[in-house]
Amino acid sequence: MRRWTLRGATTSYVVGVPDHQQWAQLLAWGPHGVEDGPSNLSPTGRLDFLTEADTEPLEYAVRGVRYANPTELVVSGPAGSDESRPVFVDSVEGNGTLDLIFVDPLTSLRLILHYRMLAQLDVVERWVSIHNDGETELTLHHHDSAAFVVPTDNGAVIRYLWGEWNSEFQQASVSMRRGRFTIDSRQGITGHSYSPFLSVADTRDPAGTTWGVQLAWSGSWQLSADVDTMGQTRIQTGRLPSTLGLTLEAGSSWVSPVAVGACSAEGSDGLARSFHAYQRSLAGERLELTRKVVYNSWYATKFDVRADQQLELARRAVRAGVETFVVDDGWFTGRTDSTSGLGDWEVDPAAFPNGLTAFIADLGDLGLDFGLWVEPESVNPGSELAAKHPEWILRTEDREPLQVRNQLLLDLSREDVAGWIWETLDRLLSSYDISYLKWDANRARLDAGEVRGRDLDGSVVANLYRILERLRTDHPGVFVEGCASGGGRVDLGMAARVDTLWPSDNTAPLDRLRIQRGFLSGYSPHLMSSWVTDEAGTVDGRERSLDFRFHLAMSGGLGIGGDLTNWSDEQLTAAAGHVAQYREIRNVVALGNVYWLGEGTTVGLQYVGADRAVVFLWDTGDLAVRASMPTRARRVPLVGLDPTKNYRVGEEVHPGSYLIRVGVPDPRGGATDSSCWVVTAVD
Ligand code: GLA
Question: What would the CATH number be for the domain defined by 2-284?
Answer without folding.
Answer: 2.70.98.60
